[in-house]
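I'm curious: can you give me some protein's one-letter sequence along with its backbone structure tokens because I've never seen that pairing?
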Amino acid sequence: MMSRLTLIICAAILVFQIGGCAGQPQLAQTSLCHGAACNADPYIIGPGDVLHIAVWKNTNLDRVVTVRPDGDISFPLLNDIHVVGMTPDKLRISIKSKLAKFMVVPEVSVVVQEVHSFVVSVLGEVKKPGRYEFQSDVTVLDVLAKAGGLTDFAKESSIVILRENGGTRERLPFDYDTATAAKGRDSLLQVRPGDIVVVP
């Protein structure tokens, strides 16, 4: 027969294993995404972005192209294609459809090789006002840090983000004090390409 100590050890191991298994789904739900990052939209191509477009088994059509200020790219057989506002996947489908006139079932890939269209402007009471280029999703706090931080005269509770949305301009208030607090939800506010951060 097992001793009392052995029984206690076995019971402890069993409880630990059950607890570990029960805890796994909860850990899986606790991901590293926060706020808007959990529902990140697909990347939208913009002016200045560098795209690598490849057509399978047709290296003559492989191209690395830069999106022009007018929003177009030039591509063999298809001439100019308007790509600004499209996702890479939508552009892939569009090119594939257009190339189908010239070849049987073309397979196309579109890769954003360099991001240059994610530009945010910062105006007002920051140490280094200007236009800043980013390579990935950033928050308002990230942008303010890039601009050198606030000056001593900044009105921290009156910061505004100006955003174009469907032809209208939105004004999104941003409270710096709340954002920098331990549980400041405003710190999760993501900027978008073309946003203007105004610090009065």
Q: What stands out?
A: Residues 77 and 101 are 10 Å apart (CA to CA). The chain has three domains: 4-30, 50-114, 119-199. The first strand starts at residue 50 and ends at 55.
